[in-house]
Specification:
The complex is a heterodimer of chains A (about 300) and B (about 270).
Chain A lengths: L1 H14 L3 E6 L7 H6 L4 E4 L3 H13 L3 E7 H5 L3 H10 L5 E5 L17 H5 L6 E3 L4 H11 L6 E4 L21 E4 L4 E5 L3 H14 L4 E5 L2 E3 L3 H10 L2 E9 L4 H11 L6 E7 L10 H7 L4 H12 L3
Parallel strand pairs in A: 1-2, 1-3, 3-4, 4-6, 5-6, 8-9, 8-11, 11-12
Antiparallel strand pairs in A: 5-10, 7-9
Helix pairs in contact in A: 1-7, 3-5, 8-12
Chain B lengths: L3 H19 L5 H4 L2 H11 L14 E4 L5 H10 L5 H4 L31 H14 L6 E6 L6 H12 L5 E7 L8 H4 L5 H7 L2 E7 L3 H8 L9 E7 L23 H10 L2
Helix pairs in contact in B: 1-4, 1-11, 3-10, 6-7
The chains are: A alpha/beta (about 300), B alpha/beta (about 270).
Chain lengths: ~300, ~270
């Protein structure tokens, strides 16, 4: 999905001269074709994220639509104030494409793990936060970002992620995607945890359960219309995210439930606990270690169904 | 016709008008900027107060947001805002807060107040103008203490890489920051050499000398293909001799009527 996200920027830029790509010292030959064919729309800048955000704000004030790409942690927590003031206070159409969302950079350690990006960006007014689940969805979303008002953060997963949606899946920024209709209970996911939940559901439903799957690619703003309807009929939900349990999708949904006085809903949140991830390995081994894996999802859903 | 000297005094009195409303504010850092802003708005910048977003206008990014009293004074003088707005400074529904906001104040290009933000924004604007082959210029006003912020140096490297000759930075070198002397807190000297080594063409001048400022700022870029940087040697608190070069006048609160009257007396 990473390649798809950048290739789509190139695709949009071919038609819209105001689209400008800014990379922060990205990997060798990233978007090389764009660099050669659209040199005025392609900037490979230095390792200076705070400056890049401010600079993008200046470009956007002059009518450009900047897409900035680098490793997620450097694009969010390193330059938080520039995002807050330069982009969001001015409500500018700057797009932040953050690589390695969640635990993708497991071998690289805590400097590179982007597991609090939703939490730090959610409180910023005007910000839209999106976490696609596969390359097909990424493409549909990226095409919509061209003319979408205001700032957007797009969390990118590892790449080569399993495709679980299809060309027919209806994807619109801000709208929930109901992949499997919930009857007994529901998994609510964002990003590539949708794949894990789908694996869990396949096993659960083959044993006569009727578990649904709802993907919220847009973490902010929440699709409150859909969620209201959902919780009218579905009272058990497991929320899964590759993110700290503090401040992410689970928190957002709990806030929504509380603020709207939705009663008798039982929620279990699965995410990263409030501690630094102290291990290396791979994304898969860390997900398993942190219990964001198929088997734990099945176990937690079973407990919920039993009323525990 | 009102003399230049009287116009400058009048701008300083407008600053006191705002100070009077709140009985305080960032007085010292505004007073050092008055002549610089006067020259820019009187002789250098192209603008249209009736159409503040006129595409061909020159852009002034006021990165040193805490010096905004001086900016508000000149914006009122040039009719971007009403003189009566000045008397609402920091009141709940005022458009004029303790730091300037773009979406509230006509003529303000970027909301500033946290230091080190204006120059990167200015670099983006300058790059946009260059890409669009537009002729307008971009000016960024920075405080000398503000040069402590690393983002400025990142922005200078980037501006130099893109040869943004449409960009001029003006540094209000009043040599004081909030706690004390810039050279004691975090030395920025040798500033000229630093700016040069980051790709700027640098000039220095007396930041209160209108003729010198005018002469220099009329000739930007200082050198083809390079960013222009003007170090303006100024006096913090300029115009009020009891406040000049005094660190405690960086920001004042709870000023008495007598103290405010004393300020007006100096500016008669």
């Amino acid at each position: 999905m990473r390649k798809t996200s950048l290739d789509t920027v190139y695709e949009i830029a071919k038609k819209n001269k105001k689209v400008i790509f800014l990379g922060s010292d990205l990997g060798f030959k990233t978007l090389d074709d764009m660099r050669v064919r659209l040199p005025k729309n392609f900037l490979m800048e230095g390792i200076c994220e705070q400056n890049l955000i401010g600079m993008s704000a200046g470009l956007a004030m002059e009518g450009y639509i900047p897409y900035i790409n680098t490793i997620g942690t450097f694009l969010t927590r390193r330059c938080y104030e520039q995002i807050f003031l330069d982009i969001c206070l001015h409500n500018l159409p700057v797009r932040l494409i953050g690589n390695g969302g969640g635990l993708v950079y497991a071998p690289l350690g805590p400097t590179h793990l982007s597991v609090e990006d939703f939490a730090i960006l959610r409180p910023i007014p005007n910000m839209t936060i999106i976490s696609p689940c596969d390359a097909i969805e990424m493409k549909k979303i990226m095409l919509q970002t061209e003319l979408f008002p205001g700032p957007i953060y797009i969390r990118v997963a590892r790449g080569g992620d399993k495709i679980i949606t299809s060309k027919e899946t209806n994807v619109k920024i801000g709208k929930a995607v109901e992949l499997i209709k919930p009857i007994e209970a529901v998994f609510i996911t964002t990003g590539t945890t949708t794949q894990i939940a789908l694996d869990a559901i396949n096993l659960l439903n083959s044993n006569n359960s009727k578990i649904g799957l709802v993907h919220l690619h847009t973490v902010k703003p929440l699709d409150t219309t859909y969620l209201k309807n959902l919780f009218n009929s579905t009272k058990l939900a497991v929320i899964v995210e590759e993110h700290s349990v503090i401040g992410g999708l689970g928190s957002a949904i709990l806030e929504f439930i509380n603020d709207n006085r939705i009663e008798n809903v039982r929620i279990k949140r699965i995410g990263i606990p409030d501690k630094f991830v102290e291990k290396y390995g791979t994304q898969e081994t860390l997900l398993k270690y942190l219990k964001i894996d198929r088997d734990n999802l099945i176990e937690e859903m079973k407990k919920l169904l039993k009323g525990n | 016709m009102e003399s230049q000297e009287n116009k400058i005094k009048s701008l300083r009195r407008s600053i006191i008008d705002m100070i009077k409303v709140r009985k305080g504010g960032h007085l010292g850092p505004a007073l050092s900027l008055v002549e610089i802003l006067y020259v820019l708005y009187e002789h250098i910048l192209n603008f249209n107060p009736k159409n503040p977003s006129w595409k061909k206008r020159d852009r002034l990014i006021f990165s040193k947001g805490h010096g905004c009293l001086a900016l508000y004074a000149i914006l009122a003088e040039k009719k971007f805002i009403k003189k009566s707005d000045l008397k609402t400074f920091c009141e709940p529904n005022s458009i004029l807060g303790g730091h300037p906001e773009k979406n509230k104040i006509p003529g303000v290009e970027a909301s500033t107040g946290s230091l080190g933000h204006g120059l990167p924004i200015g670099v983006g604007m300058s790059l946009a103008a260059k890409l669009n082959k537009e002729k307008h210029k971009i000016f960024v006003i920075l405080g000398d203490g503000e040069m402590n912020e690393g983002s400025n140096w990142e922005a200078l490297m980037t501006a130099s890489k893109h040869k943004l000759e449409n960009l001029t930075i003006i540094i209000d070198r009043n040599k004081l920051q909030a706690y004390g002397k810039t050279e004691d807190i975090l030395s920025i000297e040798p500033l000229k050499a630093k700016l040069e080594s980051f790709g700027s063409e640098v000039k220095s001048t007396d930041g209160h000398d209108i003729n010198k400022l005018k002469k220099i700022l009329k000739k930007t870029p200082f050198k083809k293909g390079r960013i222009s940087a003007l170090i303006c040697n100024t006096t913090k608190g300029k115009g009020l001799n009891f406040a000049e070069n005094k660190g405690e006048w960086h920001h004042k609160s709870n000023l008495s009527e007598q103290e405010i009257d004393k300020m007006y007396n100096f500016l008669k």
